[in-house]
Amino acid sequence: MEKFYITTPIYYPSDKLHIGHSYCTVATDTMARYKRLRGYDVMFLTGTDEHGQKLERIAKGQGLTPKEYIDKVVIGIKELWKTLDISYDKFIRTTDDYHVKTVQRIFKRLYDQGDIYKSTYEGWYCTPCESFFTEHQLVDGKCPDCGREVEKVKEESYFFRLSKYQDRIIKYMEENPEFLQPNTRQNEMINNFLKPGLEDLAVSRTSFQWGIPVEFDPGHVVYVWVDALSNYISALGYDTENDSLFQKYWPADVHVVGKEIVRFHSIIWPAMLMALDLPLPKQIFGHGWLVINGGKMSKSVGNVVDPNVLVEKYGVDAIRYFLLREIAFGQDGNFNNEALIQRINSDLANDLGNLVSRTVGMIQKYFDGTLPETQEPTEFDGDLVETARNVVPKVEAAMDKMMFSDALIELWNLIRRTNKYIDETQPWILIKEESKHAMLANALYHVAESIRIISVLLQPFMPNTPALIWKQLGIENGAWDSAKEWGKLPKTLSVQKGNVIFPRIDMKKELEELEAAIKASQATSIANQDKKEEKEEKAEISIDDFFKVQLKVGEIIASEKVKKSDKLLRNEVKIGDEVRVIFSGISKWYTPEEMVGKKVVVAYNLKPRKMMGEMSYGMLLCADDGADKLSLLTLDKDIPSGADIS
Ligand code: ME8
Fold first, then answer.
1. For residue 205, which of 243, 161, 159, 240 has the smallest C-alpha distance?
2. Which of 285, 373, 535, 593 is the most buried (most CB within 10 A)?
3. Is the CB–ligand 1 distance for residue 21 below 6 Å?
4. Cα(253) to centroid of ligand 1, in Å?
5. Residue 227: phi, psi to the nearest 5?
6. 290 CB under 6 A from ligand 1?
7. In whole angstroms, what is the distance from residue 446 CA to residue 120 CA?
8. pLDDT tens digits for 230-242?
9. Cα dist. 348→30, 154, 261, 490, 497 in Å?
10. Is the CB of 11 under 6 A from ligand 1?
11. Bridge-partner residues for 57, per DSSP?
12. How many of the other CB atoms lie within 10 Å of CB of 482?
């Protein structure tokens, strides 16, 4: 069986994934379903990208550890994918142990073979995008990707020899025009990034800790994009004892990604794979954005639409249809409530829903639910059968290029042609004359058979509607190839009337309700955010909780700068009879000489943790103005070291 490996990006865990994120996943899911129906052995991977400074900060803001915060959010993400009927085969989290180990091995291997080396990084960092930029890449001093403020960073860093792979990547792209789709993205990458010259990439950080530690240099964590991109192979067991999935599925057939992350997937990822001597994915498909009034839908702008609100109102199939039909995959598309309701009314309720219900209704009414054996052709049959026969290769051709919208246009041509056939044959006239009943039976058979073919082809896009149609037509399932054959329904078809599959809705009333529902969900999301921030300032804890923290007086008897770090001091602190090593990130404010002799406040029962290859036993308390001032907490009377603080 031929294999097909398809991936979505792994999402940053965010409280609210919006309809823009859902768009990417729904499209990928549609492709995975389509390939399964075509008989492929499909591996569909999605997951979450859980490291980086941004998450560390958000979690801290909520008084949680990053993992505690992310665990909660991931539950919501998985629920959303369930709501949208996303049929992924594997969900990877970059905090999964196997992934962490694979990334560490990859990093070490690249270091050992000289593709990664140690130096000093000086430049600009955009935390929301988790991206480094050189001075000349900034636009008006801001992040070229999101337009937000960037931070100046100077730190010791490992570098990946990206520049070494530049020519090979250009050559690869030129020789494989299918590699980066749509085509325009390839020109953009070659002309804007590759030809001007690649710089080596800083691939480790020392200024925060929430990342995968570089095993042989624990003060460093792996740059989040190196960590994230590796998910596509770590999920398959790459470089482990059990790498059968990797052997079977790699290289990926397509990585589906949003246009702003095409750069990482078409330059950094290929370079990493080249360095690892692995084949490149067959395709990177960069889709466009869902925009609202011209701007990208995004949480920080506050214009996000919650997919749950939409699904609750109109059902998952209607929402999936709208996303796939309304926006040409690869281009940006406007998300618009009116267009959504319009599509539901015209394409789903009028064209499809009405076709099914009136056909079943007529078979019920004219023939008591079962068509008679005797049937006579009409002059309109040939054209309908021809249209149905042609639609399958057209849908397949569009799907093979991931042109979901085109595939649906083809499918709707058949739906409209079938409706037209009803108007041409006029069953309500034929029923009036006994001699025309054989013709009427044939006409209704033709319509039902066409509906069957439509329902088979609808499956990748709409996971639920086909089964509702089959129930009414009395069939069990719809193998893809059965759509290529006309006449699979029994001549004496028996139908069973069911509910209307897509009821028509009142545009004006619905529009008001929908706008109100979206506004309410945006307001709740902002209010929740505010509440969380408030809680973070004023959260109360019980006295019992407070007493869980053991504070003691310590006297600093020795202090020195840590060589590999520009922040840390290594202090030896006398607490009663014992002497503890406690690292503190305060060398910007205190010299070792200033430290020695100070009586300070020590968080005494903190779990020891490894810093710079050595254990640190506790923490020195400081006051921090959040900007650039810091003061160690000291005592204003002489109290012996080891004394309790309460
Ligand atoms: O980029 N319209 O994660 P992410 C369409 N963790 N797509 C949108 C969108 C919109 N309005 N907003 C977001 C990341 N997306 C990284 C990926 S992969 C190794 C690491 C899409 O959660 C966006 O384009 O910020 C991207 O493809 C996906 O959602 C995940 O974005």
1. 159
2. 285
3. yes
4. 19
5. -60, -50
6. yes
7. 73
8. 999 999 999 999 9
9. 18, 57, 34, 27, 18
10. yes
11. none
12. 13
Q: Could you count the other beta carbons within 10 Å of the beta carbon of residue 481?
A: 12
Residue-level pLDDT at 529: 52
Cα 14 to ligand 1 centre (Å): 11
Q: Output the residue whose Cα is nearest ligand 1's atom 14.
A: 11
Q: Which residues contact 83 (CB under 8 A, 6 or more apart)?
A: 307, 308, 311, 316
pLDDT of 157 > 70? The answer is: yes
Check pocket membership of 229 for ligand 1, CB cut-off 6 A. yes
Among 397, 405, 370, which Cα is nearest to 491's? 370
Q: Which of 7, 10, 11 gets mutated to test ligand 1 (max ligand atoms within 8 A of its CB)? A: 11
SS3 call for 176: coil
- Residue of 460, 465, 462, 426 lying closest to 443 (CA atoms): 426
Asked whether 403 and 329 are in contact (CB, 8 A), the reply is yes
Q: Kindly state if the Cβ of 13 falls inside 6 Å of ligand 1.
A: no
Using the mean position of ligand 1's atoms as its centre, give its distance from the Cα of residue 160 in Å.
24
Residues comprising the chain, all counted:
646
Distance separating alpha carbons of residues 223 and 157, to the nearest angstrom: 10
Find the farthest-apart pair of alpha carbons in the chain and give their distance in angstroms, rounded: 114
The mean of the pLDDT values for the chain is: 92
In one-letter notation, the amino acid at residue 138 is L
Q: End-to-end CA distance of the chain, in Å?
A: 69
pLDDT in tens, 518-571: 888 877 665 555 444 443 444 577 788 888 899 999 999 999 998 877 788 999
Residue 222 structure tokens: 């792996």
For β-strands 221-222 and 551-561, DSSP reports them as: unpaired
Q: Is the pTM of this model over 0.85?
A: no
Helices (H), 426-491: 427-430, 437-458, 465-473
